[in-house]
Amino acid sequence: MRDEQRRDGVPAEPAADRELDDSALWQDLRGGDRDAFRSLFLRHSDAVYNFAFRRTSSWAVADDVVQATFGTLWRRVLDRTVDELRLPSARPVLFAMARNECSNQLRSGRRQTQLADRIEAEPGERGSDDVDDWVSAEATMQEIARALRKLPRSQREVIELVGWSELSLAEAGETLGVPVGTVKSRLKRARDRLLRTPLADLLRGAGR
Predict the structure, then answer these.
(1) Higher-pLDDT residue of 178, 199
(2) CA angle, 23 as apex, 22 and 29 as ends, to 5°?
(3) If you count Cβ atoms within 10 Å of the first and of the last residue's Cβ in the chain, which end, N or C, has fewer?
């Protein structure tokens, strides 16, 4: 797991990174620039990790999703199939790719990766406090995921993107491939349904 975490057990992402314009880097990436690819990875890999962890409730799977997402991106670069950015941030495109990779990982059974296997593979690199944090983070996210499963999938997705990942309505729409108005209406319905639950804080101020 990455070193810097929030209280919910996922890595913190510097606020300044969310304001970066990726247009120039993305253009260079489309031309096969490895340095541009590396810069985009450094800017956004933690955000992709956060997103994947919240969808899968597993830090092990989230790590796999990050690798698969950026691996797929680079293959598209080599195939010359990377489209131009439609918004300044690359995150909507990366989150859309990660969304598919999460489904692929879960379908393939990689979700069953055990914590003990990771610990044995990295002896001495983690302390007991780290393990406790990992287990606690997964348990908390699994509990939240169970509660959110009462919502339709379309509403859960806008919570993940707007409430947690702090995308704008336009960026969430780009990720999901739907109009901004649809994102807004789904967010409102989700907010109304969660209003009297402990999960209401997930949407406090989101999309406003």
Answers:
(1) 178
(2) 85
(3) C
CA-nearest of 9, 60, 77, 20 to 43 is 20
What is the distance of C-alpha 22 from the center of its chain?
Answer: 17
State the residue range of the domain holding 188.
150-208
100 with 31, same domain? yes
| Side-chain half-sphere CA neighbours of 138 within 13 A | 16
Between CA 77 and CA 41 the distance in angstroms is: 14
Compute the mean pLDDT over every residue in the chain, rounded to the nearest whole number.
Answer: 79
Domain boundary among 84, 113, 142: 113
Q: Give percent of the chain with pLDDT exceeding 70.
A: 70
Question: CA 80 to CA 52: how far, in whole Å?
Answer: 26
Task: Return d(Cα 162, Cα 188) in angstroms, integer.
Answer: 12
Give the pTM: 0.72
**Confidence (pLDDT) at 1:** 42
Res 3 pLDDT > 70:
no
In angstroms, how far apart are the furthest CA atoms of the chain?
51
Whether residue 180 is found in the same domain as residue 95:
no
Q: Is 80 left (phi over 0), alpha (psi -120 to 50) or beta?
A: left
